[in-house]
Amino acid sequence: MDSVVIVRTGTANLASVVGAMGRLGARTIVTSEARLILDADRLVLPGVGTLGAAMEELRQRNLVKALQQRLTDGRPALAICLGLQMLLTGSEESPGVSALGIANGAATRFSNDVRVPHLGWSRISPPPLTDEPEAFAYFAHSYRVTEPPPGWSASWCEHGGRFVAAMWNGATLACQFHPELSGAWGARMLSRWFAGEGMLDLDAAVKGVA
Amino acid sequence: MPVPRVIPCLDVRDGRVVKGVRFENLRDAGDPVEQAALYEQQGADEIVMLDVSATPQGRGASLRTVAAIRKVLSIPLTVGGGVKTIADAAAMLEAGADKIGVNTAAVKNPALLEALAMQFGSQCVVLALDALAYGKGRWRVVVRSGQETVPLDALGWAIEATQRGAGEILLTSVDRDGTHSGYDLELIQAVSSTLGVPVIASGGAASPLHLVEALRAGADAVLAASIFHDGTFSVGQVKQEIAAAGFAVRPIEESAA
Fold this sequence. Notes:
Shape of chain A: globular
Number of strands of chain A: 12
Largest sheet of chain B: 8 strands, parallel, barrel
Distance between the termini of chain B: 28 Å
Strand order of the largest sheet of chain B: 1-4-5-6-7-10-11-12
Largest interface: A-B, 42 and 42 residues
Mean pLDDT of chain B: 92
CATH superfamily of chain A: Class I glutamine amidotransferase (GATase) domain
Number of helices of chain B: 10
Strand content of chain A: 25-35%
CATH topology of chain B: TIM Barrel
CATH superfamily of chain B: Aldolase class I
Number of helices of chain A: 7
Structural class of chain A: alpha/beta
CATH architecture of chain A: 3-Layer(aba) Sandwich
Strand content of chain B: 25-35%
Oligomer: heterodimer
Mean pLDDT of chain A: 91
CATH class of chain B: Alpha Beta
Shape of chain B: globular
């Protein structure tokens, strides 16, 4: 299969993800249909905006159960930016809103002694799916996770203290940064993900750092 | 901590890059898609495209330009110019913009900032602040592509705009724009030290030294147009100078293509 299913979450600008996948030669299917999401061999969960608004979209489109099922069935999935936070139980950004609850943790806001939003290119280590010791990735967010949820491995970034740049568990990789906007390195990471490599490399990379 | 960004700016009218002095006397400066791709190859950290079209036909052309740039670009694309409503912003995002810049419409209707932040998140909302000096340490807000000065203090407006949801300031000195005399460092210092959001310095860059000065004054990112369009300096050369001045920069990589 050479296709990637991208979940339409309503507020996400999908053109960047679609463009990046297209440059890798992937056939992209943008959908909010539960059946296509459940059938997807490779799933991308993008997201911008607030967690509350994004979860409301998923609820209105009746996608919460389908995503919970598809994201834990052992097949490759990639969550991007707010997509990472949608995997958690919730976020300080939208109190009282339940996220998908696939990973046990919550996002909190950056402290005010650094620029918020965290916008721009920051060093991450170890970069997921690639064998370089570090890379620069593009971020655009105000909330973050400071510890990986139990059972998840992490790649790290620094902005007023360290936070989770990416985390992975089984075949699900969640990036707080935007690989689709992270230049040549981001394209390499997506290409590895698309080729289905790398979950083992990831764990090896982390052991090297720990 | 993010490293300083170097951002080439494409002023686009009817699908072509143009450049003027103090927003006037626009002249043709090339194809936006080719230029965006070239700048990414040279190590640009982001591209800003300002739509300076004056007609609805021009706006349509700009949406097509955004889509065409998006196809080739694997770094962020910020688009400003003519965004008046949520629907305008949604159309730009749908076409491929990652962030939306607003100036005139936000001044006329500040609630637009809240609405945009609510819908798309603050990280997506850039206040394009065009500032004109009027005496020591004071600046007024200018709207309509440099045409109209409004009785609004630039610093006060920047504070209000970020409280309403703008997540970044694209700060242009109208006095310096196109003059090649360097950024208004006092303006950069005043805004970046007052605000908690990132500040992109714009207006007046003619040499790598000017960009270094803006970063030293507190800018998080530096935007320039003519020094790149005219081929005086490549983005890579500018980043080398910035690194030589002691700032970390994102290394230049082989093209993603």
